[in-house]
Task: inverse folding
């Protein structure tokens, strides 16, 4: 089945460390997104990309960077992790502007 | 910035009752409004969506209504069942974010039997 896959699923890291979360998809979608989920705050948009050369900041991009290595791969990096970046991170893909978003399984990140 | 407001944050109903969750949005250019259900430990999954050229859409026990003039839309679940218990998110496509989906903060629905 075509899907959206995130790695790792769980990660504990120390303050100040660099960490990368990876997302790959087999849906053939051009649009890819990174969201962060915190209890009571819903899903907040970090970055989005329409293709390899088109990357845009979302609502809460400070402290994060992304790389679109290929149409199917979109990585999220925390250059120097801090405890308030502890959250559940979701990657998502869409086929077009008014279409459904398909989410990966999520990455639970804990910064200690 | 553009946002999506969702109410209530928690909702408790008895099995068989109806549940209504409401959302408002600020971007008048929004054209797409999906609703997602997230069960504990799972990823959000689409349950129903509506586009701006439609006022209402129904799928079995679930319906969504849209009022573009007032910039609000609602999810209606009838004959609720315990398996409807989950967190529900509304979202709207936001033109300033390249039509990315901006989500409400979620509603935790609890259905007791």
Result:
């Amino acid at each position: 089945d075509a899907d959206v896959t995130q790695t790792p699923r769980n990660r504990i890291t120390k303050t100040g460390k660099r960490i990368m979360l990876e997302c790959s998809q087999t849906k053939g979608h051009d649009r890819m997104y990174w969201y962060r989920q915190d209890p009571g705050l819903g899903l907040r948009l970090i970055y989005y990309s329409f293709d390899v050369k088109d990357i845009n900041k979302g609502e809460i991009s400070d402290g994060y960077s992304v790389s679109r290595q290929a149409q199917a791969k979109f990585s999220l990096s925390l250059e120097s992790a801090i405890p308030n970046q502890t959250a559940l991170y979701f990657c998502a893909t869409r086929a077009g502007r008014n279409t459904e978003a398909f989410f990966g399984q999520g990455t639970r990140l804990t910064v200690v | 910035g553009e946002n999506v407001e969702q109410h209530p944050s928690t909702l408790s109903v008895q099995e068989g009752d109806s549940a209504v969750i409401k959302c408002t949005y600020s971007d008048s250019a929004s054209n797409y409004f999906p609703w997602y259900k997230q069960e504990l430990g799972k990823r959000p999954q689409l349950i129903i969506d509506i586009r701006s050229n439609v006022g209402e859409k129904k799928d079995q026990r679930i319906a969504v209504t849209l009022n573009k003039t007032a910039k609000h839309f609602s999810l209606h679940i009838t004959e609720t069942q315990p398996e409807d218990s989950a967190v529900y998110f509304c979202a709207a496509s936001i033109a300033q974010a390249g039509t990315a989906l901006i989500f409400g903060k979620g509603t935790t629905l609890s259905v007791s039997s």
The CA atoms of residues 89 and 106 of chain B lie 5 Å apart. Chain B has no helices and eleven strands. The interface with chain A takes residues 1, 6, 9, 31-32, 34, 43-46, 49, 51, 89, 91, 93, 97-106 of chain B (CB under 8 Å).
